[in-house]
Amino acid sequence: MNPNLQQIMQLGQQLQAKMAKLQESLDSEKITASSGGGMVTVTVDGKGGVKAVQIDPACVDPRDVEMLEDLVLAAVSEAQAKARAHYEEEMRKATGGLPINLPGMPGLF
What CATH number does the domain containing 54 carry? Predict the structure, then answer.
């Protein structure tokens, strides 16, 4: 086998191992974001999956459900954006700066 090809294959195997470890660690990450001055807090995992929603009872007003819905949506969106940024940074570290979205390899988000 060509020495260069062998090196490329070894690098591919190392990258695959790093990616598997990264995916595992992302499952256990906890990233939080709040809206409404902390009235709604959302926790997501490193992949952006919602794990918890906390709502301050003071913002529960049956006459203004729309405001609460907006606060929840804002907190979820911010938490997922933080998770996406964290994922992209970890991918850059794991791949040594290689492009994250290689052809045929869709991104996580």
Answer: 3.30.1310.10
